[in-house]
Amino acid sequence: MTVALPRPRTAELGTDDLRELALDAGRDLEGALPHDVLRWAWATFGSKFCVTSSMGDAVLATLASDVLPAAIDVVFLDTGYHFVQTLQTRDRVARTLNVNVVTVKPALSVADQNEKYGQSLYARDPDACCAMRKVAPLNSALDPYLAWGAGLRRDESPSRALSPVVGWDTKRAKVKVNPLACWTADDVAAYVAERDVIVNPLVAQGFPSIGCAPCTQRVERGQDVRSGRWAGREKTECGLHL
Ligand code: SF4
Hints:
Elements: H1 15-28, H2 34-45, E1 49-52, H3 59-67, E2 72-77, H4 84-96, E3 99-104, H5 110-117, H6 121-124, H7 126-141, E4 147-149, E5 166-169, E6 174-177, H8 185-195
Parallel strand pairs: 1-2, 1-4, 2-3, 4-6
Antiparallel strand pairs: 5-6
């Protein structure tokens, strides 16, 4: 039976109230199961809450599809540089899960970017490329929402080790929800096996973290899972989660 939820009243809250709500929830939900974090976010924000996915796997989308009473928006940034397997994973998620996949594109096509900034900007200035192809499109895509969720986990990298379960996204003035923050790689693997979650086939081919094709390399077993991203550079994040 689907339980009717009270109409979320957060749309009436100002920025300071939302920030306080986020920080309180981060304390209250620390250690909660991802399922319960998602339920809280939906009960609090309703359709003003979305999740994002890079389509490395469908763990967060599957959890949302299973536990929420209605289809949630799953925002996917189509940078124009994805592996074909990533786009196929996106299409499988849209076809098989009870979610609305929202594909977001940058203002410039790859061809237009090449014409304006020269070929292979990702190799010369990856921060500028990420800013145009990921950060700006996400910022625009998140406009209609009060809260957004991502699949960050604390065990993925030092830069993610302090990710709260619920926090405040200062740059965007939105509530940021990380339902998987406390899960380990083993927790994810167990959930994938138990629930038969869709996983990008590149993961089994040595790509445990998948971004744009020009900036993602295969990693050896036992290496840092994110070491194939912008390999050989200082850069470790695209700027979406900073
Ligand atoms: S990951 Fe690489 S190709 Fe993708 S937006 Fe960033 S710099 Fe550009």
